[in-house]
Amino acid sequence: MTQNRPLFLPDRRTFIAGIGATGLAAVVGCSADGENDGMPQADKGPESPDLAELVESGELPPVEERLPATPLVVETVESTGVYGGRLNTVVLGQTDMPYVKMTMGYEGLMRWTPDWSETIPNVAESVETSDDASTFTFHLREGMRWSDGEPFTAEDVAFAANDVVLNEDFAGAVSSEFLSNADGNATVEAVDELTVRFTFPSPNPMFLQEMSTLANAEALTGHPKHYLSQFHLAYNDDAEAEASSAGFEHWVDHYIARFEWWDNPDVPTVNGWVVTHTLADDNEVVAERNPYYWKVDPDGSQLPYLNTIRHELVGDEEVMLVKATEGDLDLVTRHINSLGNKPVLADGREEGGYEFIDLQTSFMNEMVISLNLNHQDPIKREIFQNKDFRIGLSHAINRDELNTAVFQDQGEAWQAAPNADSIYYDEEMAKQYTEFDTDLANQTLDDAGYSERDSEGFRLGPDGERIRITVLIASPGPTPYMVDAMELVAGYWNEVGIDTRAEPVDRSLFQERTVASEHDAGVWNGTGGFRDEVLAPLYYLPSRTSIVAWAVEWAVYFGSRGEEGETPPEAPLRQMELYWEMESEPDEARREELFREVLQIAKDEFYTIGTVRIPLGYGTVANRLKNVPEMFPTAYRYGDPAPTNVSQYFIGADPTSCPRAVPAQLGTARGVDDLREG
């Protein structure tokens, strides 16, 4: 049996006594002023001054009664901070609301370390794993409370698991896959007030990783039973009628609407900030410090340091770019941080009062081209499944020109393969077929069986008709440059006799057509390059039925474990068997070995065509915002910036007094150069 515990967790009495013995501790070299959004204090006690005032007036219990017996200690990046101030950022339309969760949410039983190297206890004080990885016992923090002061207990976790996540009424409304494996669902039991046990019917060694992803982290810690049970039919016979009166078709819809803390200020949370204004109020989400937050800094002072976080709703990227260059945004890591915008942002740094930070992307490719290997047209299916056809197309791409014209010489030629800093890095896999050679491309396509051409020089398929490929590009897509990049590639392929056209389509239509396998090909950026190779093997074996959909019928077979879909050929079928075995293998070394076999087959089969990899992305951070790492990972499954511990960010006045630093897990354990070079 293994145990996973934080390394340093003194009890609450030790924290409070330590602070009380010294009075107010001065923060050396990092004084602050709040400018337009609240005056940060230069001195720091056991709690923020505004909460101390509420305690003094009798409106709030003392801090030692609000903290759990063993608060989680958050190690700071630069220094201990000061209380006060507001972090300003934006969301780009209502579909961007997950970013609110990524900045002030992500408080699950487990979480990623800041460098994304492992998963560690968070809301849970510790976790015990059985030797066969089928049983996981979580021990919660004694005295931990929801933001309304009610106790957080094992009953809350069991309610979330049994009455919501595993409840068939919620199918499609919440993520549930992480609480099941090939042999069925987990049994979830509240053993006592502070202990909850998950028992799977067979080994599930990736459970702790799965529950640490952004999508799953809050699924078990975001359902306060004392509040949400009133909207649940199992606890309220009138739930359906009340949902109808509130304008909902089903009680589940009503429940989900009340559960979403970024849109419902009434629901208690365990987050560092509690929403006070929603988009419905004034096109912004504003959240203020949670007085019952259960984390402290190394001095024992209750976090968070920041009083407020504000997310303003903006309509387009141009507005966001203007706000960034004018210094209105404290942290930007998405949407406008493209290569094309970097010169604009660079020019605005001095006047806007911000600087660049590095983002260690999990993407292994800026654009992967996926031919539809399960095409509904049997002729195109035959052509696209021909590996030599794909190799010929790959050799036809001038990646150096593509890199210069679209990516400003920031990238390097790369296939759909793990990054150089991945434990699964394989240089041959990354570089195979990336040589630009029109003669070799033509010869390979000839040898593949497509040497016959029409009067215009385009190659003919086995039916005597011209081979045509329409490549769908989602608009808006994950990055703005894909249309330009794919139009260049289409030109290269036309030159070797493949009639190719790039077609931008609405993102919803893109998804609809890829799900239905009604496309010739599509492009998307390449996940699974660093840290998420196993969790997101989308390009390594057919496992995705939308967007990254190069073999939908095989992916359906994979997802249903052979009960639906089309039985794939020997190679992808073997990959699936290896992956299924890996999912139930308790030994970590053996799991790594199995996944290397999956990657070897992917290398041999060459399913998709990569273009260019850019090793590092970038973001911007205000000079006044302290304790932000100078480099951190970026990926949806990581959920940045939340794992960097936003609760220890603070506002500082002197931009040179607290130079940007790499946190211990990013710097001491592994240097910046190590991370860049792998």
TrEMBL record:
This is Peptide/nickel transport system substrate-binding protein. Residues 119-532 form the Solute-binding protein family domain. PANTHER family: OLIGOPEPTIDE ABC TRANSPORTER, PERIPLASMIC OLIGOPEPTIDE-BINDING PROTEIN, PERIPLASMIC BINDING COMPONENT OF ABC TRANSPORTER. Pfam families: SBP_bac_5 (PF00496). Gene3D superfamilies: Dipeptide-binding Protein, Domain 3, Periplasmic binding protein-like II. It comes from the Bacteria. InterPro entries: SBP_5, SBP_5_dom, TAT_signal. One of its GO terms (biological process) is peptide transport. The lineage of its organism: Bacteria, Bacillati, Actinomycetota, Actinomycetes, Micrococcales. Signal peptide: none annotated. GO terms for molecular function: peptide transmembrane transporter activity.
